[in-house]
Specification:
This protein is an alpha+beta fold. It has 3 domains: 28-143, Butyryl-Coa Dehydrogenase, subunit A, domain 1 (Orthogonal Bundle), CATH 1.10.540.10; 149-252, Butyryl-CoA Dehydrogenase, subunit A, domain 2 (Beta Barrel); 256-400, Butyryl-CoA Dehydrogenase, subunit A, domain 3 (Up-down Bundle), CATH 1.20.140. 49% of the residues lie in helices and 13% in strands. The strands form 3 sheets. Strands 2-3-7-6 form a 4-stranded antiparallel sheet, with helices on one face. It has a 3-stranded mixed sheet with strand order 1-4-5. α7 packs antiparallel against α8 (301-330) and α7 packs parallel to α9. The termini are far apart.
Length: 406
Amino acid sequence: MSTASTSSSPSSSPSSRTKVSPLDLLAIDDLLSPDEKAVRASVRQVCDAVIEPHIAEWFERGELPTIRELAKELGGVGLLGMHLEGYGCAGMSAVDYGLACLELEATDSGIRSLVSVQGSLAMFAIWRYGSEEQKQEWLPRMAAGEAIGCFGLTEPDHGSDPASMRTRARRDGDDWILDGRKMWITNGSVADVAVVWARTDEGIRGFVVPTDTPGFSAPLIKHKLSLRASVTSELVLDSVRLPASAVLPEVRGLRGPLSCLSEARYGIVWGAMGAARSALRAALEYAGQRVQFGKPIAAYQITQEKLAHMAVELANGTLLALHLGRRKDASGLRPEQISMGKLNNVSKALEICRTARTILGANGISLEYPVIRHMNNLESVLTYEGTAEMHTLVIGQAMTGHSAFR
């Protein structure tokens, strides 16, 4: 029997001699097609050229001053409603859309929210449930960024329980009259069209509401400390009169808005990993440059432990997002699968950002670095479009067959 060691030296395996990115130690890139990499690269190019030079300033000022120009820029490269077919939409795959969300949120969660609300909420609702007239009127302009949309579901007193919404629509002859309020609505005060969900005598219905309709207003929400480079508003509907043609004809009940939320939550699964990657990159670069006690802090064991754990969670989350994307393209996703993705990836991304902040020390709270901005943004992402608690219960119900929501 040989007494030689069976362990291999780092140089004994051909694969070990292949250079890999410190941000992709599992070489997940090898699982992407050339076309998918090209989509990702084109989104990164737009973000680097148009958004990155300004995003810290926008965040500090608490505004997105060029949102209309930005929407046209993003629409011009096919990012708005990119996973939808027809009506000027790009018809890309779920994985393509996910990679785009990752790169957008690597720049800022507010930018990904702009694209997500436009394409996966407002446009998707019209595309899936709208009349042909509604689709022709709105989708081509929204895909081009010439019209901005918002999605009105959450209310001041009803977030996780949309079935208890108070916004109401009543018939008046052939028209509908809408009254109510919606809260925390991305794009609200700049939107040209709002998809608003309301209680009716026929159940919950969706309405396509041009924002210049009398009685509609969208006051801007200020004093945010998260998602500051994003437009967030309240929607006020005060006897808004709409024609019968404004109602979404193809859906009734909560199935409509919840299916739209599933589309948007899928993008968050990817987007959170973009924020995490940005924070890890900043921490890795900083650790290699910051010298304490005579050597870079990257040379200390505790720093390497932090970096290693961050890299593992980033890889796990990216693999989970890619798996869900492949399944979505092949056969679609179940709600609990999307819940598993959002629950895991947002919480792990937030953990990565917080760990990165400790590596940067006091510099970690400076907008000279992206870490605190991503960390603050993810505090909102953690609870919007389904809180961690609600996603936990979705998973629990799928596992046990028992609903614990009430």
